[in-house]
Structures are given as C-alpha cells and as structure tokens.
Amino acid sequence: MVSERNDVEAFLVQHPPFNELSKTQLEYASSNILVAFSKSGSELLLDSVPGKKYKVGMLIVRSGSLEVRTAQGKLVDRLSSGDYLLADMITRNESDPWHVVVLEDCLYYELTDYALRSLSSSSNEIAILLESNKTHHVQSAATNVVSSTEPHVDQLVNDSYLSQLVKEVMSTNLISISPNASIRNAAGLMQLHRISSLLIQEDDKLVGIVTDRDLRSRVLAKGVSDAEAIKVVMTKSPQCIDADGRLYDAYLKMMSEGVHHLPVTRNSLPVGILTLSDILRANNTEPLSLISAINRADTVNELSAVAEKLPDLVVKLIERHARALEIGKIITAFSDGVTKRLLKLAERKFGAPPCDYAWLAFGSQARQEQVLGSDQDNGILLPDNIDIDDAYFKQLAEFVNNGLNSCGMPYCPGDVMAKNDKWRQSLNIWKKYFVGWIEEPSPHAVMHSSIFFDMRHISGNAELTRQLRQYVLERSKTNTIFLAMMCDNALLHSPPLGFFKTFVLETDGDHNNTLNLKSRGTIPIVDIARNYVLSASLNPLNTIDRLQAMAQTGLMSHEMAYSLIDAHEFIAGIRLAAQAKQYRDHQPVNNYLDPEELSSLVRHQLKDAFNVVRDAQAALRTRFGGGVI
Amino acid sequence: MHRLHCEQGLVVVLYNLIYRWQHWRFSQKANVTPVGPLYQQPVISRSQLFSNTRFLVIDCEMSGLNPKKCQLLSIGWVIIEHGRIVNATAKHLLVHADRGTGESSKIHGLLDSNIAGAKSVATVLMLLMKLIPGSVLVFHHASLDLCFLQKAAVENFRCPLLFSYVDTMMIEKKRLHLQGNVKGLRLAQCRQRYGLPDVMQHNALSDAVATAELLLAQASYLGKPENLRLSDMLLSCAH
C-alpha cells in the first residue's frame, strides 16, 4: 500500500469544516465518502437512491454547481466547488422539502450520515454544524465559529505588539559617557538630555550602564561621592538585546534580569536603548499620544498635520487584529478630540460664545463606530427663550465643519452639518423636528432622519443634549407607527444569501461582483439595534452596547443578541481589513469587497453571519412591522 | 434502423462467443491454478442494469509501452457500486520489479528505491482476482492495460484472466463519433468535456479514480440511471 494522500482527502482538507479535522478524523471522513455525478438539469434525491444501503448525511460539491430551492421555488442557496449541504436541511421540513437541482454537471461527495454523526462526537466543528442546523438554522454556528476564534484573536492582539522588532521601538538618541567621567558629570548629562539611563562607552565599546535608580541606590543611599568615577557605580557588561530581536525577547529579558533598560546592539556595537516604557508605549498607546497632540495644536493646519497620522495608526491596529469595536472607538475618540479642539480654536478666534450651546454628533460618530473617511454629521443645539446671536454660531460652525473636513472627515453629502442653518437650532425647534419625524413619519422622512436618532453630546452644555435625548426617547417609545416605519426602513438593506463561485449570491438569484460590507453587512445590524432601543427607551448608542443592553433587559433573546454582536464584529472586521489593504495599496478606501479575495473559510463564516442578520431581521419584522399601510 | 439492430445482435453474439471461446480454451488449465475461480463465474449479462453492477475501475502504470520489454510498476483500483464510487475501496499497490524502472519513472515519479517495499506481481494479481468475480472491470484505453495484465497472468499462472470490461475511451470515442466529432481521447481531455476537475496528482490510483469519475459522467449522459444497461456501455470480454 502506498501512503500518499488520497485525492478526496486532499480536497476535503482545503475546505471547512473539514480543514478543522485531525488527520485521523479526516481519514475516517474520506473513507466514508461516496462519489457521484449528476448532469445539469437533474434533481438530486438525497434519500431515494435504489439499492443504496446508506443514508447521506452531507453532500460536498467537488465540481460543477447545485441550487437549493424551497417547494415554493424560493432560492435558498447555490453551491459550487467546496460548498456543502446537510441532508437534514433538505428533509427537515417534511411538508416543505427543499429541492436540489444540478445547475452545471456536478461531481459531488456524499458523506454517510453514520460517519457524519460519528465525527460529530469527536469534532467540535462538526457537532456545532449539526446542532445549529437542528435548532435554529445556522445562527449558533456563527456565534460559535466567530466566538471560538475570539480568544485566538485576543491573543494575537496581546502578542502582536510584542512581536514587533526592537529597532522599531527603541530610542536611537544614544547618549554615552566615558567610564572615567565623574558621577556628577554623568548625572548632569542625563539631566541635560532628560534620559533615565546612560550608556558607558570606552573606545566605542559598551562597558556599562547607569540608570536613575542606580544613582539613587548606589550613590545617594551609600553616600558615595559624586566626584567618583562613574565606572565605580555602573552596572558592568549589561544585558543587551539585538536590534533585530523581538519585543517579547526584550520583555522576557527585562523580567528575568529585573531591569528596565536594555542597551540595543548591532554587531555588538550599541545603536539604541530600549526601556520598559518604550515597550508599554508600543502596546497601542499611540492613539493616546495622538490625542494629546491634538490638544497641543494651535491652528487648523497643525491639527490636520496630526490627523494625517491617523490612517497609519488605524491600519496598524487593524493589521494587529485589534477588535473592530475598539478601532471604531479609537477613531471616534480622535474625531471627538478634533471637534473639541476646533471648537476651542474657534472660541479663541471669534471670542467667547454669547450663550450656552451644545455641539451634537449624529450617526456613526454618535455611535462611536467611525471608520477611516467617515463623513461628519453634526449640529448645534441652543437654549430656548434667549435672543440668539446666530451670526456667531454660524461662524463657529463653519470654522469647525471646514476644519473637520481638512482633518479627514469630509462634508456630509446630505448636508447634516452645524453650518447648515437647519441644524443649528434651539431646543424647541429640535424637539419639533423629532416630533415631526416621530408623529408623522413617512418612509422618506424616516430614511433621512434615522441618523438623528443616534445622537451624542460632544461639547458645550451637556444638560441641553440630555433634555433633547430624554424627550426623543420618551416620544419614540410609544409610537408604534413610527417604530414600524423605522422597521421597514431597517429592512431596506438586507444581507445577501451568501457566495456562489466568485460572486455574491442575492436572494433573487442574481450575482454581483462586489459586496458593500457597510450597507449589506453592518448597517442592517445597526438598524436592528436602533429599532429595539428606541422601542424601550434604552440609552446606549454604540451598537454593541445596545445589543448587550437588549439582551440584559430581555428585549431580545440572549442567543440572538450575542449572535448579532459576533456577526457585527466579524463583518466589521472584514470591512476594516479590506480597507486597510486598500489603504496600503494606495487605493481609494471604500466599503466594497471583491468576493474573490475571500478564503473559503471566511466565505462560510460570512455566510453564517448573514444568516444571523436575516434571522434577526425576520424577528424585527414580526415584532415591529406589519399592520402599516 | 434495421442495420443498427443487426449490428447490435452481432455484438451480443460476439461478446458471448469470445467469452465461450476463452472459457473453452483455458478452463481446463485454469482449474488447477489460482485463476480458476474466474472461469467458474457465469458470464455477466449485457442486459444487466448499470445501477446494479459492481465496477472495478483499474489503472496500471508500466515502465514503458512495450509489453515484451516493459513491466507493471503499480496498479490502482477503486470500486463503483450503485452508481457511487466507494472511496474506502481505493487501493494503490506497487509492483516489485526485477529490472530497473527506466525512463517511465520520470513520468510517474516511481523510483527503484520506492519499489523496494512493493509486492510481487503474483501477489498483486491474487488481490485483484479476489475482486473480479461479479464485477465488470473498467479501464481507460483498456487494450494497453489488458496486454500487461494478461501477460503477467500468463507468466505467473500460465493462464490469462477471464472477465468482462468496459473502456471509457471507447465509450467516449463512440459518443464523439455519433456527434460527428473527432477530439482528443486522453483521460484528461475526456474529463474536461464533462466539466470534471483537474486531477491533483498522477499515479495509478489517481488515474483509476479519475477514470471512475469519467465513467459516472458518461453514464449520466448515456441514459437514465434506472434503465441504463451494460450493453449501452460497449461491454467486452477480455481475451
């Protein structure tokens, strides 16, 4: 017997769920596979092959393609090479069995039902697959698939900053002194350069290091004279790290040696120094430094120079697999910072405001879900019963809106900006706007007003914002017609069925070359969450926070809410990764994804995520929709 | 129509004649050899249904094309039952060679050293013969494989094997002929016409599986599975 891998096995190992199986499990699956062929146009009958002694558990397409439809002819799925179908899904509903028809001559593998069930007892992936099919479609599959990768992702985030090279993080400002110099001279040099450690070099060779702590513990505490040579108190032949080493090597060395400073060497010559705080700073603290840079900027030009650094940072975070939720919060924190700084600069330029005001953010900024290049949506809220100097606020708004635009937050195409007179109004007028949207909703108005229902205070008098929000939440909760309209609006964007070959498969059977991950992926989830929180006057704005609150208050089943959270994180993560790639390739950054670039595993996971969204949309329709003309 | 009918009749007679002729020539001799059981099997009927037939799909790799000078290097097979390739039945056996593998090793990647752990021709044939009774053998370009198998059988058992077989190349040739087409008949070319995927590797087993898949594809185009008969597949008798 020759031991090379069977072709069936070689094919299976490339495709989910089989790529998760161990070698023995894979061999077992492969030895329980039967290969069949059907020509195009014929219908596959999974359970009635004459003389067949086995029951089919799963069908895997090797070549060609299949189509699954309900008895009423509604498209359920199309499958091509590498896609699979569970026999249970076809036969599950006895009154409405699905039909599997061959689209293109199809070579397919049948895995026996017995083998599938045996595998499910030893493989988690297969068990999840069967379980999710039995209970609630593919919903929990997505939960489990996505969340089972989560610890791994977290680990990546934690580990990834430590896997950077020492030379990328070290300080290259190399200050050294001769071993014969006095302790006082050494301390003076450290003071001059504001450094916490000093290298001691003799003829270019590193002979020692002295740190702040050494000066304290070996000089002051011991009463050593500051006229002594520094070599008396230095640490001789200190532990070094190579410039091409990884941060975790450096970190481990610091921990094991109990030191906070490591000279960095290349070919045994010192080239830099790495401190524990350098390592800590490498751990995603750049956003903080960027935000503190914002507050030092004194002109719009300086501010936009700082803003230019944001995309690089964001792309780096994405590539280090930071969570989409965190990235959205970081970008939004930056936008908030820029807005506040611009307001401060404006007040400096035009004088103190004549009265209280509140600067509001709407849409993605309000939800803390901005991505690179998200446009600005904002407005000004002014107090009632005051004679308002609108000219001042118009100037202020124009200054801030223009400033935001030059800081990478383009003007809102729908003109929802404070510089537009319509969105710079008193509390009463704002309330009237909302009453109009809530009490007399029209599909058109609802579509355009939905972003206003995501509203967050940015600057100024927070009490004004609180009053408006309170008012909106109370009004919208009880208005079922409004909620039904919002629901209809939320259902305008639905996810696709899945993927077929290199295309996106639509519910009507159409194929698209690209997928808009925003309108077809994240927006439907955002809309669902908004609808629920408005119906119950819940406060959270961020979609994930909203979904968690919905689960806690029992507004949505725990299972569905957390499935949606995972689906959102997964889709948003893919959207961010695609954008990071576009940015790196110097392409315009947008929300489109070419399905050809997706691996088979990601396609399956995305499809599962879409199924979760579709299920949640169905639940939304049942709860809020219907009965509206 | 009448002529076609005559031809059909002739083929039936010929198939049975060849079987009886082979049987008459060798059955006495065969009875005292391991080949004997093959001669005690009833002839497989040409009217047998495709879906009721067990097929043993075989591919051999040889050290060259000339049966007088060259020899079997490896043999791969897989069984089709009820119109399904049973992956668990796939077998790949290397044949122990007396002579160096020569030029052909460059194609199949089988080196002399690989063959060290191989079985003797007789052992391989014995394993194969266990599966033959009740099965129809399948080859792509049967004449070549048959030459080598029969020569090996005669050398080892002084008696050729007796079995019925179909040749996917001949099925394809007839199909193309009916369509008035002349196209390539190599295995990969035939597979392409049915949209079958490229084969990942080339060895006796992969090619046997590839041939089996081709047979399933051809069968689905020859007729409905419930009334497709072996006569539609040019059933022949080895001689």
Q: Can you characterise this structure?
A:
The complex is a heterodimer of chains A (629) and B (239). Chain A is of the alpha+beta class and 629 residues long. With 239 residues, chain B is α/β, with parallel strands linked by helices. Chain B has one domain (2-237): Ribonuclease H-like superfamily/Ribonuclease H (Nucleotidyltransferase, domain 5), CATH 3.30.420.10. Chain B is built from eight helices and six strands. In chain B, α5 links the parallel β4 and β5 (164-167). The longest helix of chain B is centred in the N-terminal third of the chain and has 29 residues, at 2-30. Chain B is globular, with a radius of gyration of 18 Å. The chains are: A alpha+beta (629), B alpha/beta (239). The A-B interface holds A 1-2, 4, 6-8, 10-11, 30-39, 42, 49-52, 62-64, 81, 104-105, 107, 109-110 and B 51-52, 74, 82-88, 90-94, 194-197, 199-201, 203, 205-206, 209, 212-213, 216-217, 219-221, 226. β1 of chain A pairs antiparallel with β3 (84-94) of chain B.
Quick description:
With 629 residues, chain A is an alpha+beta fold.
